[in-house]
Amino acid sequence: MPAAGSHTRGPRAARALLTALLLLVLALSDPLVRPGDAAASGARGTEVVAAVTAAYGPTGTLAVAVAAQHTRATGLTVRAVEARSARLLAATAANGLGDRPFPTASMVKLFVAEELLHRARTGRIVLTLGDLATMQVMIARSDDPAASSLWVRFDGAQMVRDVAVRYRLRGTTPPAVRGQWGETMTTANDLARFLALLPVVAHPDDAETLLGWMRGATPIAADGFDQQFGVFGTVPGTPAVKQGWMCCVAGNRHLHSVGVIDQRVVVLLSEVPRTVGYDAARAALDTAAAAIPLPQDR
Predict the structure, then answer these.
(1) Domain boundaries, position 15
(2) pTM of the prediction?
(3) What are the recorded GO MF terms, alphabetically (predicted)?
């Protein structure tokens, strides 16, 4: 015969057990999910997004997304899963344009490099030292001929699709016109997710290779364009950055900047009418990036 009151304790215990099991499933099904402590302990993502958006001004359209870069985590308890979820919510945010598609310009080079490293890691292709050097200049110097050669050799459209599937990027699609890799479409949220999850979706060595190439970005690009705008050249130190610029899709000029700053991912995708020159577009993006809180501000 059940003890008195067991009919009330039983359902509560069952619900507690079910909750614990659900949290454990979440932990096991998402092996990625712990943001770096440095980013999570700073200003909240919503605060960063609000400051950066307000600083940009009326020059054009700016999509902003902020996320904490993840680190591998094993053996998490249910309580640790709950705490991790709270940190993720605090460290991830976007403005109202976070899911708006933008042409990537050179941001797509990040997807190309990651996918090629992944294919080589899983034995699908063999990359020579020359291939790796081509990939490095594609990222660090934003070299367009390097990107074009890799796009043609390895089916760039399929590389974009494969990355979108592995990272669950909902707004990232290959270009509508075959071969026009700069017109690949993505969103600020997708780029933030990609860079946030890079250390745990990619092999750690491959993630560090790509981030190292980003940290080695050159002040002047291969085509002579000054890459020091937005996150690059505004944020002190040596953040891992990728810059993009393009004119003109649908009559608009695009200037993009992404960076990993102290384990915080910041994505700035901007669009201005082609009548607005690059100098004005740069100035607006620089002002926006200058509003990003730095470690000493926390």
Answers:
(1) 1-30
(2) 0.83
(3) beta-lactamase activity
